[in-house]
């Protein structure tokens, strides 16, 4: 399984929590699934999804900042694949040492100047 599939699976699981598993049983969710046309997500459900993304990925994923750069038509046309691509790019940019939420362990590869403990 690739990292992209892992992110997609996690987003689909979050969507199931937000809209209900029964709803998703009627709809196969993949990268081309649109939040508006296919899933009919309401704004409150976007807020719930954003909260779940924040809990899972911490400060590395800023859903509000992601959609702030879009116009209304782009938001309405956004797909699950658009979101997973954004998440994957942010995770790659944050590096493997960054812990979710930026808490303990975030950036644990801090450099120490040579001779600092001499």
Describe the structure.
Mean pLDDT is 80; it is low at 101-118. Helix 1 crosses helix 3 (43-57). It is built from six helices and no strands. The protein starts with a helix and ends in a 24-residue tail after the last helix. The chain has one domain (3-94): ACP-like (Non-ribosomal Peptide Synthetase Peptidyl Carrier Protein, Chain A), CATH 1.10.1200.10. The radius of gyration is 17 Å and the shape is globular. The chain has 118 residues and is mainly α.
Number of strands: 0
Number of helical stretches of at least 4 residues: 6
Quaternary status: single chain
Distance between the termini: 46 Å
- Low-pLDDT stretches are 101-118
CATH architectural arrangement:
Orthogonal Bundle
The arrangement of helices and strands along the chain is HHHHHH
- Summing up helix and strand content along with how strands pair, one would put the structural category as mainly alpha
What top-tier CATH class fits best?
A: Mainly Alpha
- What share of residues is helical? 40-55%
- Average pLDDT confidence is 80
Report the sheet-strand fraction: under 5%
Q: How would you name the CATH homologous superfamily?
A: ACP-like
Overall structural domain count? 1
What is the 3D form? globular
Using only C-alpha atoms, the radius of gyration works out to 17 Å
CATH topology: Non-ribosomal Peptide Synthetase Peptidyl Carrier Protein, Chain A
Q: Report the major sheet.
A: none
């Amino acid at each position: 399984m690739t990292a992209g599939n892992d992110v997609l699976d996690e987003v689909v699981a979050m969507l199931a929590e937000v809209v209900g598993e029964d709803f998703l049983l009627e709809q196969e969710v993949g990268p081309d699934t649109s939040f508006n046309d296919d899933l009919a997500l309401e704004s409150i459900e976007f807020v719930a999804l954003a909260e779940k993304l924040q809990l899972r990925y911490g400060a590395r994923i800023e859903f509000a900042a992601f959609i702030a750069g879009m116009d209304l038509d782009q938001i309405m046309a956004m797909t699950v694949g658009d979101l997973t691509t954004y998440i994957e790019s942010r995770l790659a940019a944050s590096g493997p040492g960054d812990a979710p939420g930026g808490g303990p362990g975030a950036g644990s590869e801090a450099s120490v100047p040579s001779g600092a403990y001499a």
